[in-house]
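Project outcomes to date are best conveyed with an example. Our students and postdoctoral researchers have been running inverse folding experiments weekly, and each run begins with a structure described purely in tokens. The record below, which covers 260 residues, was selected by the lab manager from last quarter's runs and is presented without edits.
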């Protein structure tokens, strides 16, 4: 069975604006990511889900140039954007990916897909219990579960973070958590901050010319050979965006309670 990978990407990142089109080895980071995702055997097609903002005209243009489908939707209601993209393309199974993960590993995506189909999950993730480097995160959602989340999610955090409603309601969905045998969750390979870009640039420039199909283990080997690489962005916490959203929501609730 095949899966549609929907990659959410926008230019107006808070911490590192324009990061998805920053160039490494002569290519935008988003292009490097899309090319890697397309190497996964279980990925039938890719949809680039970006915003309707003028700033994302170049994002959409890149997607079309690479021959992938492009869907443009709400900037902040990302769940609505995902549902719109999945509906328009008649998806049955959706893999959620974020555009700040340029060294995503196609083999890990296939491993998660096998896990998802094997036990007939509504939702499967390799980051519910983090064991892979931050930047290899992937989630697979059935269209039925995505539709239910879209229809029932009310909290701003649940609209911004696509799968949060599902994770908040585990009794309503058959959920699977895949974990790696070895724990590499202390490693950070995503691009949210300038230090992340410095790290990723060094990794890609080192590995890509030698092996265009480099995988997770190749990066691990590189970091172990040159441990100073890992220190570049080791101080940045995992999932800061989600933590920020939940903290802001809690503060609003607390404020409302004080007023009543």
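After processing, the design step wrote out the following sequence:
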């Amino acid at each position: 069975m095949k899966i549609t990978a929907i990659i959410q990407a926008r230019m107006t990142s808070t911490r590192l604006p324009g990061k998805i089109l920053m160039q490494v080895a002569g290519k935008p980071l988003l292009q490097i990511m899309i090319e890697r995702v397309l190497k996964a055997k279980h990925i039938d097609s890719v949809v680039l889900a970006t915003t309707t903002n003028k700033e994302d005209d170049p994002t959409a243009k890149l997607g079309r140039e690479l021959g992938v489908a492009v869907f443009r939707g709400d900037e902040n209601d990302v769940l609505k954007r995902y549902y719109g993209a999945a509906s328009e393309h008649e998806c049955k199974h959706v893999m959620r990916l974020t555009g700040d993960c340029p060294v995503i590993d196609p083999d890990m995506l296939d491993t998660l897909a096998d896990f998802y189909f094997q036990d007939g999950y509504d939702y499967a993730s390799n980051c519910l219990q983090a064991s892979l480097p931050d930047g290899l995160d992937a989630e697979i959602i059935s269209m039925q579960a995505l539709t239910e989340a879209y229809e029932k999610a009310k909290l701003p955090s649940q609209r911004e973070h696509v799968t949060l409603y599902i994770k908040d309601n585990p009794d309503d969905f058959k959920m699977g958590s895949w974990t790696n045998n070895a724990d590499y969750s202390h490693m950070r390979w995503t691009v949210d901050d300038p230090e992340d870009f410095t790290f990723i640039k060094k990794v890609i420039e080192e590995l890509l010319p030698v092996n265009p199909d480099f995988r997770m283990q190749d990066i691990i080997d590189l970091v172990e050979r040159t441990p100073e690489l890992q220190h570049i962005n080791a101080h940045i916490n995992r999932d800061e965006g989600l933590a920020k959203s939940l903290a802001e929501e809690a503060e609003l609730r607390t404020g409302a309670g004080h007023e009543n």
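Residues 92 and 143 are 5 Å apart (CA to CA). Residues 240-259 form the longest helix (20 residues). The training component of this project remains on track.
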